[in-house]
Amino acid sequence: MRHMNALSRKWLPLLPATAWWAFFFLASLIGIVLYSFALKAPIDAENPVSFEILSLSNYGEALSSVYVHVFWITIRTAGVGTAICLLAAFPVAYLLATRIRPQWRLWLLFAIIFPYWVSFLLRTFAWRIILAPEGAFSKALQHLGILPGPLTLLDTQMAVQMGIIYNYLPVAILPIFVALERIDPALRRASADVGAGKATTFLRITLPLAMPGLVGAGILTFVLAAGDYVVPAILGGARGLMIGRLIALQILEAQNLPLGAAMAVVLIVALLAAGLIAALLLAIVRRVDRRLQGASL
Fold it and tell me: Which structural domains are found in the chain, ordered by start?
């Protein structure tokens, strides 16, 4: 009895957060899954969704060649954006964690997250001004002779790619910085003391220990980028379609909630699969690293 009371006191503070998560995440997720098996009702029906017959037809349509192509564009755009974010984020996080003095580190971290004090929508709209064909940036490039005519990036997939990299780069920097900051500097000094060069120390000490931060940053960036609706809607136009915007179009404009729900479920499953693959790759990297360290000993 005493053990049960102690256990209840230990888990009692988690109940509000758990209830909030269950209501706003699990309940909505279950609702999406249920709607994905329904059918779109006729136009003159009172309820736009019919649950009289449950069917897998929405998934068949969601996995048709037209929509699969949009899924592929989404995964490719999110994957390229994640890779570029990680490549750009790691040097910044490494310098912050190992080269910048602590009194300056806080200010630089503040500068990195400061854009998030501005609305995501406003920051994305700002890129329409930057990429506008008749904007100041376009005219400056023409004046310098870099472009023969107006800038044509706006309302293209490239503009969506740039918007994703800009918006989610800080998301990639912070987890990598935390992982690098937790590495004991004595490990790098010990590696140098036994004759290892900087490259060897980085590959055998720093990079393996920072790998959880890299994987976490990659998963977080990829999930956010793949489900983004704002960036494709504002910067992509008709030529920058991604699955998040396509789901919104099906629900809000086509009034086809079941098909939109099926697309959302397919996207969730794809993102879960990507997370599992990343976790598997991390486990493989750790096992290989342990074997290499054992062989070197």
Answer: 28-296 (1.10.3720.10)
